[in-house]
Write a structure and sequence with these properties.
The chain is an all-alpha fold. Helices cover 55% and strands 0% of the residues. Helix 2 packs across helix 4.
């Protein structure tokens, strides 16, 4: 696996301007105090929601609710308390989980983008593949399946392949991917 030299690698124009800003890097102390309050709060809630303390708190709430049943005669209001509480918490957790998923997905994409950009022979056109439409992604998937079939019939099993290799031409009804024709 060859690594591109940093001097030979020039990012696309749309990324050059963004590189001028300071980018937090893993291992560097990032001052979270500069983040907006909502970002810090959501991050703290995400950490807490996945902790043992959150599980124990939820468990204790359920036990307290169940134990209080006889005191309230297992009435409708007693049931309404737990139903309302769990509904509100579930509603809020959906957004918290989605936020965490979006952030994790973006981080994974950035890490993969760095790997694609750093490897010699890799197609830099795939760096922003997550922005393609479903139809464009399906075209790429078919092309990678073709590359897999081609690799299986080759004598040199260790030869690297890229989506940029020329292959059978697409039919005219298939859209171009990202403004470029893909073989």
């Amino acid at each position: 696996m060859k690594r591109k030299s940093h001097s030979a690698r020039r990012p696309p124009a749309r990324y050059r301007q963004e590189q001028e800003t300071e980018v937090p890097v893993s291992g560097v102390n990032v001052d979270e105090a500069n983040y907006p309050f909502t970002e810090r709060f959501a991050h703290a809630m995400t950490r807490f929601a996945g902790s043992t303390a959150a599980f124990i708190t939820a468990l204790l709430c359920i036990v307290a609710w169940a134990v209080s049943g006889p005191l309230f005669g297992y009435g409708e209001n007693w049931q309404l308390v737990i139903n309302t509480g769990t509904t509100i918490i579930t509603f809020l957790m959906v957004f918290l989980i989605q936020r965490t998923q979006n952030k994790d997905s973006l981080a994974v994409h950035l890490k993969l983008n760095e790997l694609v950009a750093a490897l010699e022979g890799a197609s830099n056109r795939l760096v922003t593949a997550e922005d393609l439409s479903e139809d464009e992604l399906e075209i790429l998937r078919r092309n990678y399946r073709r590359l897999t079939r081609d690799a299986q019939t080759e004598q040199d099993a260790g030869r690297a392949h890229s989506i940029d290799e020329q292959g059978p031409q697409r039919s005219s009804d298939e859209p171009a991917v990202g403004g470029h024709r893909i073989a």
